[in-house]
Amino acid sequence: MAESNLSAPGSANNQSQIDLPIEILIYIMEYLPLSDRIIASQVCRAWYEASQDQKLHKEEIVVLQENITRQLGCLLNSTTSFQNFYFRDVELDSKLIPFWEKYCPKMRYLYLESCVVTERMFVEILSSCCHLENLMINDCHELMMTGRVLELELDVLKLRKALVNLKGLSITHNRYMSDAIFYRFVSTAPNLHELDLTGCQISYHMGLYKKFYPPHVVDESNLVLSETVFTFNVILKFIREQAQKIKVLKLGQTLVDNSALSQLGSVHGLNLKAIYLESCNQLTNIGLTNLVSVQKSLTCLDLSGCSRLTDHALIAICHNLVNLTSLSIQSCRAVTDIGVAELARLEKLKCINLAQCEMVTGQGVTSGLCQKINRQMQNLHLGALQMDEESVCKIATNLPCLRHLDLSWCFSAVTDRSMQVICEYLLSLNTLELASCNKISDAGITGMTANETISDSALEASSAFEEYPDPLHKINLRSRAEKEIVNDAKRKQAVLHKITYNDESQGMCLVRIQGLQKIDLSGCNRVTDVGLLYAFNFPALQYLDLSRCQQITAIGLAALSENNPSLETLVMNSCFNITDTGILSVVKGLKRLKHLDIQGCRQLTDASLIAIGQHCQCLLYLNVNSCIEMTVGTVLEMEKKLETLRTLYYVGLKTESSIGENFGCSPAPPPPPRKKHSAR
């Protein structure tokens, strides 16, 4: 989700120094991400005009939340044809009428989350959206609570004419949804392809349906829908009516059961392309097997968190859904290597999520995905699996076209050696997630000492000899934690020595993967300044998480800021060695920084806040929780200077009273100890 820049270039007198036709400029900008287009639009008038072309803004979403007075002014004065809008925690009243008049006729996507809007205003807004393709209404209780929304048949007919292009309808997490309200909504969309009811309180029990619709009273041709209950039977009735058009169905986080899936699969003429059933804990193998044996045209299936599914269900999927391109069984804890090995049958699979499947090991993953070179697979999520080093190496060599790889919490699998194989073969990656893979060190990401593994025992021995040249004093009295700290320092020195005195790297450096846009190294405490100095030079890198990398200092941050100018999100939770000097380098070097998380960095002072206020003109999010040397007053002063700042966290900082206690009079002495009375 991207937030667009609504301002024109600073100087209207700038003239293009390169006389390229505007069509060529537009064509070039189609290949640029939003951040780069914003910067390019500020070069000259010609580039600005090219950046305003409508085709460049089809995928952008303008986010408006809480107090939107300033943003509305910018939008009303803007010449850009924005088409997608996301309103969050906003009151949609008469003040927005000029906005609706300008943008509704061309609007394609409208998202309303936790918004306050009346029934009449809602109808007026939608009646003007003649090109609307997707409508999302999430958690808008005031709109649904009265049960009167769209109760007039004239309103339904009016919207039915206006919303002929509506393909996707999402009514999620609305606890006041009823059969009557649901049918009014779907009646306004004659060409609906996608229906999302995630998190709604749907009743699947036939007994409850019979309570509100007694068999001797119900007349299917003239059914009066209930305004107090939301039943699956009414959803099924709509799907039967629109079976030829409905292609995507989302029923996640509901109580959908085996009977409901069996009825759904048996609908005549229904050929679903995607179904999302995440966190549907009532589902078992029987219901899913019945569904996939009939709906064989499915290409996308999400079963995340369906804890009662086992290998039997996964085998049925692999045998029936040969066209499947995306599958998620995250947190399906009963699935084992037996089921995962059957994934080899899905030759068109591009995205697979096996994260947190506790019974799955590296052997099952390699059996299912790495029997041969697979150039189809693009996204692979294996977080928290029982993987080993050899499995990661096989994945890297057999899936060369991966673009997203998640190996977070695979403690023993991601080592310096397996990291070297990733750097050698996975050159198409744009996202690499290695959270808490604490065996990675600078050697793995720089390629230095790749052929010479430095063991902990060797490091301890060298440390002992250096400190105690006398052989009578070789006994090491350090604790295990102290030994690890010393060994990390030794590794850092060894890698730095190799880099300094060797002209050629012995291995593969992470910088080979030039397309990386997101890297998560949180908890990789063996990555130090050396890694940032010699392995981080990515022109497209936008997101970096270095949380709990406690050996990083201002030296590494200076190099990071200089060599990665596109960074927009930087997370450095609990990096205890970061100082004000490091933050100054970050805010000066990263001009596009939008999200900065430095909570728990205890050496940072108000000097960092002052630097942030002076240099971070694009900042949207800042978290300085538990930065104990900062003061609340300075945070509030900084907030006034940052007009773009939307989210600010500053819990656990110094207040004026605490400063007075520290620098004023000495605190009162503790009370005297209680006297012990001897027992008589």
TrEMBL record:
Classification of source organism: Eukaryota, Metazoa, Ecdysozoa, Arthropoda, Hexapoda
Boundaries of every F-box domain copy: 14-60
Entry keyword set: Ubl conjugation pathway
Source organism of this protein record: Gryllus longicercus
Source taxon at top rank: Eukaryota
Keyword Acetylation part of the UniProt annotation: no
Protein name in UniProt: F-box domain-containing protein
GO cellular component: SCF ubiquitin ligase complex
Pfam families registered for this protein in UniProt: DUF7885 (PF25372), F-box-like (PF12937), LRR_6 (PF13516)
GO BP term, pick one: SCF-dependent proteasomal ubiquitin-dependent protein catabolic process
Residues in coiled coil: none
